[in-house]
Amino acid sequence: MRRKKSLIAFMLAGVVALTGCSFGDIKMSYYDECSYEEGAELANINENLFYQNVLDWNKTVSGADPSVMQITDKDDPDYGKFVLTLTSGMYSFTAYISSDLANWEPIGPIMQADDDNKTDKSKVLYFNTWAPEMTYDEEEGKYYLFFSATPCNKASVTGYKNDSGSVTNKVFNNEYTNIPYVAVSDSFRGPFELIDHSDSYRFADGTAMKNASGEEVTKAASAPIEHNEIQDNAMGYSYFLKYSVFDPYQIWNAVVNSSDSYVKEIAEYEPQKILRSIDYHPFVASNGDKYLYFTCNKDGAFSDNNNTYIMGIKMNSWTEPDYSTLSRLSRYGYYDVEGTMEATYEKQDAHINEGAWMTERNGKFYLTLSVNGYGTTFYKVVQAISDSPLGPFRKLTEEEGGVLLGADGIDAVSGPGHHALVEVGDEQYIVYHKHNDPLEGGNARHICTNKVEWVTIKDKDGNDLDVMYANGPTVASAQLLPTFAIDYENIASQAKVSADNVASTSDAKYLTDGLIPISTGVNAGFMNTYVKSTEFTDETTITLTFDDYKTVKGIMIHNSEWIESAFYEIERVEFSYRENGKEKVKYIENLAFDWKANSNQEFSMSPAGAAIAEFNEIEVKEIRITVKPATTEQVALHDNTLEAPLAIGEIVVLGRK
Q1: How far, in Å, are 293, 391, 401, 589 from residue 327 at the CA level?
Q2: CB–CB of 310/330 below 8 Å?
Q3: Which of 109, 198, 528, 646 is the 20 to 30 Å CA partner of 627?
Q4: Are residues 32 and 121 in the same domain?
Q5: Is this model's pTM higher than 0.70 or not?
Q6: How many whole angstroms separate alpha carbon 73 and alpha carbon 96?
Q7: Which tops the pLDDT comparison, 597 or 181?
């Protein structure tokens, strides 16, 4: 639930004394919403309008691998809200609910073990319960939850000894990990229950899970392959495979008979003949077809290509795959599955392609996925494109904006990745995790949100192509809440924009294009071409003129992404407005930029920092913003000899919808 924090900066009294700047102009009363109280670690913000991606133990959702689904059942009292699920570790899954993608409330466990490994649900939810993702089937009125887990290996369950050095532990801990499951419920709140397929499933060797008498077969016959040292293993245990997403027999035949040699190689190194996989993502195309995406792993003990990759399969229903459509969609380290060209943003640490998400736009399919090791700063989200939901996909190059979310060059952010993309009307947001400690990385992560915009570029062949650009990752800098959740929207693009002293190599249009330049250390060519600050040769006055009066609540002026060209403060903001039918001018002087929240104050800028003013609504026709270049005394590293000594990243005007 959003809370309006008490304002720590003073509020100027309603209308204060006139100044001599321009006779008759009125100095405005406004809130300085994004400032630090003495000794405080976090800035105070108006949480009815803004949010931050800071780690706040009182409200931030801790965890990893977020997935978000909007509630589309019109009969549900929470219709239109959003449900968040994430990796929880073991034994259960907990969900969260939100109206704005930034402030989440727990709704409790939606699926959990019943007792001490006595029921099948408890045996399945035993360990490594990872990356749950939910989808709603409108025709069935059912919710399906996809996840992976490692089943119970206790001797009472398997019939084998399970001391630390036993073959049973080796089977379960190494070769029965990451079994994919799907559970069903009448509500996103749960409880979700496993779906028993024992009447129709077969083990990988063809043994039916039930015999002619209808009795359940405990396990299939053992059939070790050449490099398998395990002698007491089985092809599987019905107590966990009968609940799997895939029929073990049919999925194994799809692997063995695949025309893709990369996929077919799985048959050479999986002793149990099971398609182990994680990060399941259900997707419904605009024509109603269902698809399921997931991550597979090549085992380095038996494969020369030790890495993970994205797979996809068409679904007749959420419990019935079309096994003939099993397809590989990515290859680690390369832009395409054939491996014809190395991807510059990969091969930085662990060989990972994981956490797939699918987006459809104007007949194109965008596969977004995370690459590199999740525990490092190089973990990031990249985007690939295809004309078909099952490929072939080509990852975009850095010149095409291939890295959707990265933080190679941001000291305050590490490992932004494993994401969900949420579309509401014309707005799109990315929900992702990043490390709690940007210096240490590792397992401890929390959930963040940033806006995503679409940019039309020229692809590598010179053709027009829409690609995604994220205004993130961010940390302490205040961001405008999704406009579907508040009464205001950014109306800056509705104004005609002009400015004095614009550098000859720049353009005032970048001030209101919706793209906030962020120096992430990736996509340099793309950024230099498509996502730019407006640069100035000297002091400037920027003018935003609307065709008609607009009801305005506030303004955000985003600083340069480079500290060398950052402004120190905003000299003056003037609003031409009307009151009781008369045209008047209100102004703000010396609008502060919060340097503590938005920079390290010596060497670099934090992502997407802005000078922000919020005030009582006024009817505005024109806004004039005067900014001077900073001096070396004001901003460390500022250099007035630069060709462009001043730059502004973006202007946001909060107008009533």
Answers
A1: 10, 8, 25, 60
A2: yes
A3: 528
A4: no
A5: yes
A6: 17
A7: 181
